[in-house]
Amino acid sequence: MSLLAKLKRKATQVQADLFPPTEFDPKKLPWIDHSAADVAAFVRQFKPRFPLTYNLEEKLRFWQKNGYVILEKAISDELIARYWQDVEELLEHPEKYKLMTRIDLPKFEPNQERLIGEFPKEDLKGKYVKLNDFHHLSETGKNLMTHPAITNFLEAIFQQQVVVMQSLTFMYGSQQPTHQDFPWVTAKIASHLAAAWIPLEDITIDSGPLYYYVGSHKLPKFNFSNGILFTNRSKRTPLEFANYLDTQCVAQGYPKETLLIKRGDVLIWHSALAHGGGLITNPDKTRKSFVCHYSTKEALPFHRFKPQQEPVVQTYNGVSIYKHPDYSDQENILPA
C-alpha cells in the first residue's frame, strides 16, 4: 500500500472516530433503498445476466417493502447434494484440509476457533459447529453461492459488480439472538451487504429455524456508543442490541415470522433485516444450511483477511470471489 493510501485510510479512521455514523450513508445506498426508487422503471431497462426464473418486478417490490425475498425451487437437488458430499468429505478427513472452524463448546475455550484438524473428529460432527468459508475449498460451494437465480437478484439490487464476502456452513441451528448483519459483517460501505440462506434440507419447526421481523430493515439504527458498527471500542453490548431490536420491532408493529424453508429454495435478505435463530426443541434435529454474504467491488475491493493486499480474483457466474490469501494451495481442492 502506498503512503498516500495509508494516509487516506488513517484519515478515514480518524473521521469515523470523531464523527461515528448513526445511519447508512445516503449517498452510497443501493438504488432500491431510496424512498423514490421506481421498481417498474428499473425492470424495464434492466438486462439480467441469465434468463429469469421468477418475476423480478414482483420480487424487487417485495424486497423493497419487507427486506427479504424467497426464490422458490431455485436450486437443483443435484447441486445441493454435491455440496453436502464435499462437507461430508471435510468432516470425515479434517486432517487433510485447512479451514478455520468454530465450535461453541466450553471445553474449547478460550480458543473456540481454530484450524479444523485441531478439533476431535467426533466434535466436528456434533452441535455448535460453524464451518467458515468452506467455499474456498469447495468449487461446488462457489457454484452454489453464485447460482444464476441468486446472481440475477444481487446484480439487480446492487447494480454493481457483486463480490462474495464470506460463507458459513452449519449442521445444526445457531439459536443466535436477534441481530442485523451490517454491524458485524463489515465492508467500506455498510449498506452494500446482502445475505443468502441456502437450506440443504427441509427445515422443520423443532430444528431452531430462522426467524425475522418483516419490514425491520427500515428501523432506525442502533448506536453502539461509537456508531452503528460494533468494534472493540463499543460500550454497548450485543445483548443490548438484541433487546433494542426485539423491543422496537414489537413497538413499531413489524410482525415476527418463522421460516420453514424447503430444500431448493433460497432466502435473500437485506443487511438491516432483524433476524435470529429460533429455539431448538428437538436436540437431535439438524438444520443443514449454507449462509453466504455478499458485497460490491466498491465496498470490498480486497479479501477481508488482507485488506492491504491486492486480491486474486476468480469469477463464477459473473460474481467475484477472492482467493484465500493464506491457504491458496487449498483453493478448489475439492473440484466441481
For the record, the CATH architecture stands as: Sandwich
Main beta sheet: 8 strands, antiparallel
Instruction: Report the count of strand segments.
Output: 13
Q: CATH first level: which class?
A: Mainly Beta
How would you state the average pLDDT, rounded? Answer: 93
Number of DSSP helices?
A: 8
Order of helices and strands: HHHEHEEHEHHEEEHEEEEEE
Backbone shape: globular
Strand content: 15-25%
CATH fold-level assignment: Jelly Rolls
Task: Walk me through the structure.
GO terms for molecular function: 2-oxoglutarate-dependent dioxygenase activity; iron ion binding. This is Phytanoyl-CoA dioxygenase. Keywords: Dioxygenase, Oxidoreductase. By secondary structure, this protein is an alpha+beta fold. It has helices spanning 3-18, 39-45, 56-66, 77-92, 121-124, 139-145, 148-158, 238-251; strands spanning 68-71, 100-103, 113-115, 129-132, 162-170, 194-199, 210-213, 256-258, 266-270, 275-277, 289-296, 313-316, 319-322. The strands form three sheets. It has an eight-stranded antiparallel beta sheet with strand order 1-9-6-11-5-4-2-3. The longest helix has 16 residues, at 3-18. The chain is globular, with a radius of gyration of 20 Å. The protein starts with a helix and ends in a 14-residue tail after the last strand. The mean pLDDT is 93.
Which SSEs are present, and which pair or pack?
Layout: H1 3-18, H2 39-45, H3 56-66, E1 68-71, H4 77-92, E2 100-103, E3 113-115, H5 121-124, E4 129-132, H6 139-145, H7 148-158, E5 162-170, E6 194-199, E7 210-213, H8 238-251, E8 256-258, E9 266-270, E10 275-277, E11 289-296, E12 313-316, E13 319-322
Antiparallel strand pairs: 1-9, 2-3, 2-4, 4-5, 5-11, 6-9, 6-11, 7-8, 7-10, 12-13
Helix pairs in contact: 4-6
